[in-house]
Each structure stands twice: as C-alpha cells, then as structure tokens.
Amino acid sequence: MTTYLLKRIAMLVPLMLGITLITFTVIHLAPGEPVDMQMAMNPKVGKEARERLTKFYGLDKPLHEQYFTWLGKLARLDLGRSFSSDNRPVLDKIKERLPITLSLNLVALVIEFGLAIPIGVLAAVRRDTILDKGITVVVFLGFAVPTFWLALLLMYFFGVKLNWLPISGLHTLGYESYSWFGRLWDLTKHLILPVCVASFGSFAGVSRYMRSAMLQVIGQDYITTARAKGLSERVVIWKHALRNALLPLITLAGFSIPGLIGGSVIFESIFAIPGMGQLFYQGVMSRDYPVVMGILVIGAFLTLLGNLIADISYALADPRIRQQ
Amino acid sequence: MTVLKTSFIAAVFWPRLKRNRLAMTGLLVVAALFLASLLAPLIAPYNPTEINAWQVLSPPTSSHWFGTDELGRDVFSRVLFGARISLKVGFVAIGIAVLLGSSVGLVAGFYGGWVDTLLMRCVDIMLCFPAFFLILAVITVREPSIWNIMAVIGLTGWMGVARLVRAEVLAIREMDYIMAARCIGCSDLRIILRHILPNALSPVLVAATLGVAGAILTESALSFLGIGVLPPTPSWGNILTSGKDYIEFAWWLSLFPGLAILVTVLAYNLLGEGIRDALDPRTMK
C-alpha cells in the first residue's frame, strides 16, 4: 500500500511538468507578444516604455529561458500580476474566487451522485420495464441538453415567469441587513439554479454508468449465493450488489472533476457568480494572459489532485488493494 | 474479422443497425439535417442576415415560423443556416481528433516500449486540463473564427480515440495474421495501415459518432459565450446569446435554437449507440 502510494505520488512530477509545458506553449501561440496586448489598451505608451515592459517580462530572452524563469516563479507560487487595471497578483485574484467555485462544484457533485446512484440502481433492478425505459429516455435527453440552454430555460421559468428564484449573483442587494438565517436562505435561493445546472451536466453519464455496473454485478455468482441464503431482495441489492458496483464510481468521480471545473465557466458567467470560471472568462475576453495562464495551470493541478484522491480512496475502499 | 469490409457491412452491420428503431430515427434526423443545410439557401424563406427594423422581436407567426430576433432577422432562416456551422464543426473537429488520436494510438500500441510510455504520458497530461479551459485559452491567443474553433476542438479531443485505438492494437498485434504479414516481409507502415488499422476502426467509429455530438455542444457553448462563431454569421450558439439578452420578452429566441441543438445531439447519440450495439461481437449470433 505504501509503495503504491509513493509510486502514485512520484508519477505526479512528470505530469505536473507536462502541464506547465503545455500551458506555456499555449500562451506563446499568440501571434503578437503579451506586451502588445497591454500596449493596445493604452495607446499613449511610447516605444521606450514598450522596451521597458518587454525587459520587465523577460520577453527579450530566448523561449526556454522564459519557460524556466516562469517555472521558478510558479514553484514559489508567484503567478505574476494581472494585466487588468487593478494590476493585482493573479494568485490573490484566484484565491478569493477558488473557494466559491470549489464549494459550488462540491455541492453539485454530491447532489449529482446522490441522485444518479439510486436512479441507476433502480433502472438496473427493474431492467426492461417501463421505469427503466423512462429513465433511459431521460438520460439520453440529459446527454443532449446543452447546459447553457438548460440554464436559460430555468432562468426563464423560475426567474422570469414564476419569479420564485433570483437569476444572478450570490446575494440580494442589501443582504447585509438580514439576520444570519436570512442571509443563509438568501444564499441558498441564489445557488439553487446554478447548482441544478452544474450537477445536471454529468448526471446522465453517472446514472448510465451506475446502471451498467449494477447489471454486471447482479449477474455475479455471489449475488445468486446471497439470494440462495434467503436474504431479502432489499439487502441483496442495496448492500451486497451496490457496494461492489460503487467501487468504479470512485474513479468516475475523479474523472468528472475537469468537466465540472470547465463547466463552471459556463454557469458562472450565465448566473454572474464571482467564481474562478467567471474570472477565467473575463481573462479570456480581455486577453489577460497571466490570469488565463494561472487558472489553466491551477485547473489542471486540481484535476491531478482530484484523480490522486480518487485513486487513494479506491485503494482504501477496495480490500483487494488495501491488503497488498 | 475485418470489420469494415463491404460484405460485412451488407451482411451483418446494416441489417443489425436497421432493426434498431432508435438508431434509424437518429440516422434519419442526421440525413435530414445534411439535406437541410445543403439546401438552406433554397429552403430559407428569408436571408438569414437581412435586418428588418419593422419586424423586431416578433413572436412566431405564419410568415416568421420561429419569430424574429432583436434586429428583425428571421429566426427560422438563421436556425437553418446555423445547421451548416454545426455540421461543419462536428465533422472537421472530429476528423482532426480521429486522425491524430488514431495515429498516436497506432504508433503507441504497435511499437510499445518507451514510445508507448511517452505518448501515453502525453495523453495523461492532456487529460488533466479541463477541456473547456484549454479551448478558451487557445481562443484567447488566436482570433475566434470557425476554423480555429474546429482545430481547437479537434486538438483537445483526440485522447479518448488514442486510448481506444491503442487498446485495440495491443490485442491485434498478437494475432497470427500479423505474424504472417511480418514473415512475408511487409514493412511496419504496411502492417499498421493495411492489417491493423482496418481492424481497429470499429470502436473509433462509435467514438467519432458520439464525438460529433460533443463537438456540436462545445461549439454552441463557445458561440454562446461570444468566443466561437461570431455574428452576423448565424450559429445555434450565438442565436442563444441574444436569447439570453431578451429572455424576458422573447422566449422564441431561446427555445428554437436550443431545440435544434438538442435534437441534433440526441440523433448523433442514438446513432452512435446503435452502431455500438450493431458492432458488438458479444451480441452477434
């Protein structure tokens, strides 16, 4: 187990280096130089200032040297300063937005799996009945609905038509005057639609996966044994079968992290939630290279971390691996 | 078993696919979309970019089936022309992904050893990036245009295909007929292209069909965010952008292009699942 863990962690190093290399390459695909971008926003800057900026960013150095300088800064958690007018360190900007995105995605992940697992099990147990077919139809529709369109429809029905839920931001104006409970309720109301949209994204995939995993397990000999022992169907399905079918889902949860983080760009910009996705979108629109680069690296590191946690949890949950 | 031989298609694949009603529905919708986008200039009742100040945000009527947008343009015509973009993006992007993914998978699987390790590490690294982030980052430094979108979706979507093809190649490599081909002196390239590739293609066909659906979704999301296909060229995503801006007054602007995406993606998914079932050796008699 310890050797497995050490090996798994050692593998992170080349992956992380690869991530930084790709990020660096992507940003340097730019036809002009980052300085041009910053200059374009301020036409008054002269040629001399331009050269000063180039020197400041080290853009007059050869590419590999630039990469290593950037890598060294990255290792010290220095992601540079934003090109935007506030000129703040990118790390600070990300730090204040990351918790919002992470907690939103975590809630979405819990809801998504909490719904998808029982639904997948139900479809497998009632295989080929009306219920199973109905679930399959819903799942296929779920695969095909663009999340941003779903967001629009929900906004229209619950926000505009019924006027039940707020459609943007995290707080009502003047929420500071509310009681503690009032604030919590206000936040919950603002989060319902975004969380629905975020969890819907991979809900279809997870429930589909759960159905096929469950079907596979139900066909195993030990399930027949459990039934032969005279255990009730409820215990057979929800204890013996479910436990075994759940294992691969841990890996699936790890894999769904990049999708969730990537999807946050869409729902955060639609619902005006000040998270990392929105920051990234703003960075893209204003060509704020340090912000884009920083979030790209951090997003990939988070995925790496998520996969690591998933692998370790898998090893801990599966007695066959745990006891090695 | 050479999967993509004409005799196989005629004798096994097509009859099996034809029995699957959902898959045939999907195929029919895809065919209809092709026809519609090919004939768009003939079918469309209006010019999709023609502005009409007297008909702004008109709800669906008998002359404007899907209503008009904030500039008085006919939404039906725009949705029809939007189909062209979606089909083009789907095919070119997935073409790039399949070409790149298959090449990587073939080389990695066939040569094994350090080549395999290196290529598969690259796949692992690429899979760490939230795909949408990577696509947006490239769009940041390159101008958004339909060609860039297609290239980027393809270049960030090949990893799944590479893994599929590699797994197939690992199994095929050990077959007797590969040994036979080697014995009669076939070059590596000939073995890869003539003997391995055709036999490794069936999972790729499924992945590609499902991939087209994914690419259409990605393009529409990018266009919706204003970094994909830019107006006035109509695409389903960018019609929805105005749908969002006018959501309080004009539901038709949001409803119809969204339905178009939904139906198209659903059709490709049903077709892909159908192809998967039809090619599945476990269910073959």
Question: What's the SSE blueprint?
Answer:
The complex is a heterodimer of chains A (324) and B (285).
Chain A: H1 2-10, H2 12-27, H3 34-40, H4 47-57, H5 63-75, H6 90-125, H7 130-144, H8 147-161, H9 180-218, H10 221-228, H11 233-270, H12 276-285, H13 289-317, H14 319-322
Helix pairs in contact in A: 2-13, 6-7, 6-9, 6-11, 6-13, 7-9, 8-9, 8-11, 9-11, 10-11, 11-12, 11-13, 12-13
Chain B: H1 6-19, H2 21-38, H3 40-43, H4 75-111, H5 113-128, H6 131-141, H7 146-155, H8 159-172, H9 176-183, H10 188-224, H11 236-245, H12 251-279
Helix pairs in contact in B: 1-12, 2-4, 2-12, 4-5, 4-7, 4-8, 4-10, 4-12, 7-10, 8-10, 9-10, 10-11, 10-12, 11-12
Descriptive report:
By secondary structure, chain A is mainly α. Chain A has 14 helices and no strands. In chain A, α8 (147-161) packs across α9 (180-218), α8 packs across α11 and α11 packs parallel to α12 (276-285). The model of chain A has no long low-confidence stretch (mean pLDDT 82). By secondary structure, chain B is mainly α. Chain B has helices at 6-19, 21-38, 40-43, 75-111, 113-128, 131-141, 146-155, 159-172, 176-183, 188-224, 236-245, 251-279. Chain B is elongated and about 75 Å long. Chain B starts with 5 loop residues before the first helix and ends in a 6-residue tail after the last helix. The mean pLDDT of chain B is 86. At the A-B interface, α2, α7, α8, α11 and α12 of A face α5, α6, α10, α11 and α12 of B.
State the distance separating the first and last CA atoms of chain A. Answer: 6 Å
Tell me about the largest β-sheet of chain B. Answer: none
Q: Largest protein interface?
A: A-B, 51 and 43 residues
Q: How many angstroms separate the termini of chain B?
A: 14 Å
| Beta-strand content of chain A | under 5%
Helix content of chain B: over 70%
Q: Whole-number radius of gyration of chain A?
A: 24 Å
Question: In terms of per-residue confidence, which ranges of chain B show pLDDT below 50 for 5 or more consecutive residues?
Answer: none
| Helix vs. strand class of chain A | mainly alpha
Helix-strand pattern of chain B: HHHHHHHHHHHH
**How does the major sheet of chain A shape up?**
none
Helix content of chain A: over 70%
Name the overall outline of chain B.
elongated
The shape of chain A, in one word, is globular
Point out poorly predicted stretches of chain A: none
Number of DSSP helical runs of chain B: 12
Quaternary structure annotation: heterodimer
Task: Tell me, rounded to a whole number, the average pLDDT of chain B.
Answer: 86
Strand content of chain B: under 5%
